[in-house]
Structures are given as structure tokens and as C-alpha cells.
Records
---
Amino acid sequence: MTTATISKKKTRRTRRILFILLPILLILVLGFSILFFFSHQNLLFRLQNDLAATFHKRSLPQTVSVSTYTIQLDDLLSDPNCTKNQALMLINDEYPLSDSFQPEISYYKDTDVQMNSCIQDAYATMSSAVREQFDVPLYVREAYRTAKEQEDKTEENSAVAAEVGASEHQAGLALDLYVPQFGGWAFTKSAAGRFVDTNCRDYGFIVRYPSYGEKQTGIPYEPWHLRYVGLPHSQIIMDEYLTLEEYIDLLEPGSFYQYGSYLISHQNGPAIDAPSGWKHVTVSEDNLGGYLFTWEL
Ligand SMILES: [Zn+2]
């Protein structure tokens, strides 16, 4: 047998081995990837959200021209069909709460958990939905935090905790949630956690520090930290993959945005443009010196 024939035979054998080994290798890689993501469903959930956010063209609802009349903010606030809350306050390092800020806090049902009064019904409905669908309780690890508690937390871990005034917990508007055995990073390892982080939009809550929003919020992903903003803002923010920073910034002062039967406007006052024929309005300070109005028609 010549050297050339031996070499040809060797090449053929190598090809045959490769032909058998490659598919096995591919199946193994695929199998391990599926197994990996199956046991780390929080990573898959995050990846899906990041991908969706990357390819989504972010936009606000259409602006509409409406007939309006002028009303003084104080007069509007004293209207029986007007609800004032703190739901849309932007609170962060750049816009901290003032020293004189008074959170509207109350105890949740008969627990010792204190949260902003405007959250309570929404949280009750969302936790009932979790209980109904997954047969697990949704717990609050932390809700309202006093300035002193925030200061202690910052001293404990300044790398993670927000400065005094810059935490939404001080307004009682944020909830750190968990379900049994799944808290913190592991929250979205549970089906209930993924349900909460996806469907919170329908209960008035947003994932305040989404994985795709770190550049805007300056805070890394926190799947457990939900923030109440109210309807329909939660739906717009979550569906458009926005952060609260971007949302408030995008709402042009003076414009009216229509979303279903809601009209949203961002105005400074004290003279307010009110759309004719509104039935109910919710007014929230924005913590930037202006107000957000959610008109129901
Ligand atoms: Zn938190």
C-alpha cells in the first residue's frame, strides 16, 4: 500500500468520525443549553425581556387635540371627582425627596407592613391573583422605610442602598416582593415571580429597575423591587420598555396623550388645562415641580 493510499484512508476515517461526532456534540450542547435555561428560568426570562427591549421602538400614546378649559389647581383638587396621590413621583439620586416630604402611609390590612395608601388596593388584587393562579402567598420583604431606616441601610451597604431621600421606599411607593423560597435574584426563578414581573402592568405596578434600563436608572436590575405608578401608566411604561425616568421626561408639558379612555397630561400649574367632559381625575406631583394628570373620560 502506498503512502498516498494510507493517507486517503485516514482522511476518510477522520471524516466518518467527525460525521458521527459532530451531531452528537451539537445535541449535547443543545441539551445542556436547554437544561441550563430550564434550571435558570430567571436568566431566560431576563434574556427574553432584554431582546424584546432591544428590538422594540419605544413610543408614547398618540397626542390628541382636545377642547379644554382653565381651572386653578386648588379648585381642581377640591373637586369630589379628583383624587390626589403620590403615585407618579420621580424619586432618584438626581431628584431626591425634600426634607419636608410627607408620605401618605398606612398599614396594609391587619399586618405591620406600612405602604403608601394609593398602593394598597392594587397590591391586594395582585397578591390575590398570585394566590389564585399559583397557590402561593406573595410576601412583602420591605415597603415603607423611614429616613432614619434608609440612613441605617445606606451606612450598612452604601454600594447598594440609595442615599437618604433617593429611595422610593421612603415614599412607601416601592415593594420588595418574594414568594416562599424565591426572594431577591431568585424571585423570577419561580413561575409566580415571573407572573408578577410580567403582569404587574395590569395592577398599576412596574419593575422599577428593569434589566434593560440600567443606563437610564443608574441602578442594576432588581426583579423584586416593584413600584406603583397607577393605571394606565404601568401599562405604557412596561409595554414600551421604558423606565420612569424616560416616561416622565417624554411626556411633553401641555400635551394630551390618549390611552384607551384615559387622557394623560403633564402640567406645571397653578392654572391647569382640563379637558371638557372629564369624569374623574387623578393628580400626582412629579417631584420636579409639576403634576401628572390622569383624566378618565
Ligand atoms: Zn426595594
---
Amino acid sequence: MDYPTLLARLGEGSAHPGGFQATKELIGQIGFARGTKVLEAGCGTGRTACYLAGLGCDVTAIDRNKDMLLKAIHRAKISGFPVRIVHADVSSLPFPDETFDVVFTESVTAFTQGSTAMREYLRVLKPQGVLYDRELAFARKLTAVQKKKLQSFYGLHHMRTVPEWLNLIGKSGFHHYSASHFVQIKQPTNDNDPLRVMDHELFTKPDVVAMMKQNERLMSTFSNVMGSIVITAWKV
Ligand SMILES: C[S@@+](CC[C@H](N)C(=O)[O-])C[C@H]1O[C@@H](n2cnc3c(N)ncnc32)[C@H](O)[C@@H]1O
């Protein structure tokens, strides 16, 4: 089993830096108007997608992981929010050009090659649309050995520093863009997702328990260099 599969089976949707609390804070700062057409790219178990729908946004949510999508469909059904949920990869979005006012994504682009996803976000945004992208960022360049450790465990494609993220977005065709300050990763707090659907049997499997321990070890080893930024980028 790989780490993304483990997260899906654990029903851990908010596995991005800062978790769901950070998501709610960011959404509060942005202040979406009712009816805003939002694409939530990499929706996981649909927690953010349902939250945005609850605020009156018109939400389409995609994910490439089918287990995650089933959990997102379940959440939307139980909570009664009209979220459109689609199986898709951010590198090839099944939507026409200029469909959305906003693309909202957290800890997804780093798992792709980068520029293709950015081009797709730009393509599906309407003129004056905005991308909000919270991504894992590194305080300094990692060595090849360090990169390999993180790459092989988490399936990360890139471990970019803040200037490297800005360089990527600068080359992606957005009209203007900015990045928030770098925030070091804190240990995730248990924010008690009432609609989490978890496969409890996993905890009885030694290989799964070993993976959880490895995650904790990596988090602790890299805690001083690993953090996140929020990129805001405008299409004009
Ligand atoms: C940190 S989670 C996002 C959590 C979500 N925003 C929430 O509120 O629960 C990242 C998600 O991105 C998905 N993902 C990763 N790479 C992807 C890709 N290339 N295309 C679509 N989804 C992807 C993963 O399956 C995972 O569910």
C-alpha cells in the first residue's frame, strides 16, 4: 500500500499543512460571494468542498483517488450539499475553458509535475478568475538523498522552495501572483471530523502501523525545513 492509499482508507481528507482549521481560516479571509463557481481540485473526502457549498458557493470537486471520491460522495449525500463530484486528474481537467471563478487546491500540485497542472488551472478559470493554492514548501533546497526519502514515501514529485514555487507560477501564464509568508509545519491537531469514514481494521496490520511510524519519523526529521505557502494567482 502506498501513502495516498493509506490516507484514503483512513478517511484522512485534510492531510495538507495546517489541516481543516487552516482551510477554514483561508476561506474566511478570502470571503467568497454566494454563487461563486469554485473548482476544488484534489477534494479528498470532500470536507472543503462541502464547507464551500455550505457557504453558498457553486462547487465542483475532483480527485484522482477513487476511494477518496466515494467518501466525498458519501459526505455530500449525508450533509445534503449539492457538490458536483468528478473523477479527474488536475493535469487533464474535463472542463471547458473559462468555467470557474476560482480554483481552490491544497497540497495537490506538489504531487504533479507542476507546470501542466498550473496550465490547466489557468485554462479553466474565467477571465479575472483566481487560483488559491496551498502547497508544501521547503525553507531550503534538499539534498538528493533527502528528496528521495520524501519522494519515495509520500509520492511527492517536487520539493520546491518558495522562490521555486514563484518561478513555476511565473512561467504559467498568470497575470499576477503572490505568495503568503512561509509557515513551518506543525504537528496536525485532531480536529475531529464528524463524517470521517475510517477503515479501523488497518490498525491491526503491522505494515500499516510501520507506515504510520515512518510518517511520524519523517515529519519530525524534516520539521525544521518543511512548511507551506499559499499562492494566489490572477488570470486577466
Ligand atoms: C491534502 S488532500 C486534499 C484535501 C481536501 N482539500 C479536503 O478538504 O479534504 C490532497 C488530495 O489530492 C488528491 N490528488 C493528488 N494528486 C492529484 C492529481 N494529480 N489529480 C487529482 N487529485 C489529486 C489526493 O488523492 C488527495 O485526496
---
Amino acid sequence: MPCCSADSCASSTGSSPRFRRVLWIVLAINGGMFAAEIVAGMLAGSAALQADALDFFADASNYAISLFVLGMNLKWRAGAAWIKGASMGLFGLWVLGAVVWHMAYGSVPHAPTMGVIGTVALLANLICLILLMAFRDGDANMRSVWICSRNDVIANVAVLLAALGVFGTGTGWPDFIVASLMAVLALQGAATILRDATREWRSAERLSAVPVLR
Ligand SMILES: [Zn+2]
């Protein structure tokens, strides 16, 4: 699910070199886990792992936007947010497609792989939480990091429960249900991001259309 926005993550501390280094580290962790969960999800035949990868993608995008785009003008920021929302939407549809595919073939995901990768994902999110907590900047910022991490941990635990359910029932249903829920949440998040980004883009257009008074 979509986490803290880039602005709330890196509002005023964004310029500090130490905070930028932490942003680079959490960007690498989230980017790496996105790739790892996509590949593991395909190898294990688990749609839930691929759905969990979506959140790592969203978070990696936020940290990348904080690092590269936040200082740029409103139009660039709106454009970056739009690309992120559109990518999340496409990934969400792809996960739903994977669910339909696995249901049609009645495939059963490999539960041990789900358990191991789900645990690694949980640890990765906890490490990011600890790193970001050291840079909390006011109550609002702290709160957004908390909400963000709590949602990530809930998603990781859902994947672990799905692994347990697959193991216990010998069917793919726990995986399909968890993956569908996470994909729908991601699609809702993507729709909100696209709507906000479109509005920001339009207001940036209006601002740039105002003639400069000399
Ligand atoms: Zn997240």
C-alpha cells in the first residue's frame, strides 16, 4: 500500500547530507526488495509476494523522488508523481492478472519460499524504520513514518499468513485472497496519486501561464 509521501518523508531535513545518505540506503533496500520479491514471486508462483513487491516499488519511488525531484519545480514533481502512480496502477493490474492466471491453472505456490522471502521483507522494512526514525523531524513527520511502516509490516505479516495458509490447506486460495486485497489497495492508492498529480500539474500550468509583471 502507498506509504508516506515524498514530501512528508523528506520535508525539511531533505537537504542534510546525512539524511540524504539514509535516503540512498533505504532507496537501495526498497529497490532491491522490489526486484527480489518480483523474481521470488514468479519462481514460487506466488501472487502475494508480487503484490508485496508493489509496496517496495512505491516506497523506492518516494525515496527517489525525495532525492532527485523534490527540489525541482512543481511541474517536474507532478510529472514524477504521475509516472509513479501510473506504474503502480500497471503493477496492480499485473498482480490481479497473475491471480486470475494462477486460479485458472489451480496452481499452488511454494509456501517455504513465501515464508523465507516474506520474513526477509519484514526485516528489510524494520531496518528502514529504524534508519528513518533517527531522522524524525517533528510529530507530523514521525507519524507518517510510523503509519507507513505499520502498513508495510501488516502487509508482510499478511504474506506470512498466506504462506501458512497455503502450507496448511495445500491450495493457492490464501495466496489469491491476500494478493487480490493488496492489489486492490495499490490500485486505489495509484488512483489517488494520479488524481493529485493531475491537479498539481494543472495548477503548475496555470501558474506558468500568468504573465510576469515588470
Ligand atoms: Zn511501504
---
Amino acid sequence: MKTWFATGILLLSTGCASVHDNKPPHWTYEGAEGPEHWGELADAYKACATGKNQSPVNLDNQHAVAAKLPPLQLAYGAGGYEELNNGHTIQVNYQPGGSLTLDGHRYGLKQFHFHAPSENQIDGKTYPLEAHLVHADQDNNLAVIAIMFTESAQDNPNLEPFWSQMPTHPDEKTALMPLVDVAKLLPAKRDYYRFSGSLTTPPCSEGVVWLVMKQPVNASKTQIEKFTQIMGHPNNRPIQPVNARPLLK
Ligand SMILES: [Zn+2]
């Protein structure tokens, strides 16, 4: 996932500054500033190297713990008003209003964005595309819903309202009108995995509730290629060790 809390989002994700000013240092998905080095780029990024509850993970059904997870309580509506290319992902920012209620606790939807190929895996399988729906509660605790995409012959019409306007260059953004409803991206069946993880980008902060939908949705090869071509590089962090964490299914 992309960001840690709502107000830090744009500054964090578009800033590419040196260690010597107060902005977070630049990072990438390959080379000297790639995932293997994130923890060394700044003190603030240390969790990327030393954290024990990092994301993404492989959701292995053999080791996942059967739990009676309750149906997700989602209330979204059309609120995606802006589409941003921040150089690390394509992100749709959401107006206040959409929410996830979890353990009786309300998390507001802040934004959703994409990774290609997927970051999380299910039974060792990597998907060509993964969406992250980022929510924060009033104390900026985060909950992320992940949706996997499989490749289909047909375009996914629910991507088109914003896929067709995807900003092609870093720091470019597009206003979305009509507003986009992320609920249309959800799979019909909403069973999910749950585990405690982290941001998948620096600063790799932990304490993030992860909810990964078991059922994938579709995107065509053309749609997937449009994203990967605009990004110009894979934007997935490698799989992280599960360590002592329970993965609930
Ligand atoms: Zn993400």
C-alpha cells in the first residue's frame, strides 16, 4: 500500500528529496534505492528492514487459521474525485464519506491505488494486478482492503471510468467527473483473509489491518498493460516473512 495517513499522502508520495532536508528521501522499486535498501535510506524507514510484521505476505491456505470472520461492513458510494500518478502508483483520492466498519470501529476510505504485479500472494500465486483500498480511523490507524485481478479476455468496465483518464506522467493528476464508486471494483463474494501488516512502501509502518479478498475480479490484458506501461516498472514490494503472525481465513 501506498500511504500511511490521509494528510501525509500527497507530500509523502510525491516528494523526492534528499536526506538533508526534512522531506522523506526518495525510494524506488529497483536498484540502490530499491526494496532491499529501503531500511537504510532513512531512520524513518527502519521498519522496512527490522519490522517483524511487514507486508506483503503469501496467504498460504495450509497455514492460515480458520476463523469465523464476519461479513465486511462497507459503505462507499461515488467519491473518487481525483486520479494521481505519483511515480510509484496510480491513486484515486476519495472524498470523505465512504467507510469500512470493523470490530465496531469506523475507518474512512481515503484513496485506492494499484500494484502490478500483485504484492500479496494467495497460495504462492502472484496476480497481474492488485488494488489497495486505504482506510484510516480518526486516530490514523489504517485498514487496507486488497482486491486481486486475474487476466480476462474482456475489459473490466468498472475500471474504465478512471482507467481511460490515467495520468501518464509522475506528478500529473486528473479530475474525475462523474465521481468514481470503488464499490464497483469489489468481487461478488466478499470472503477475505485478515492479518496484521504494514505499509508496503516506506516508511513500512506496522499496525495496519489487512483484509485481502479471496475472490479475484477481472481486468483485460490491455488494461493491465496500460497500467504497467504508464508506470514503466513493476511496483510491487517482495513478499515478507510471516513470522509469528496468525493469518486468518
Ligand atoms: Zn498499495
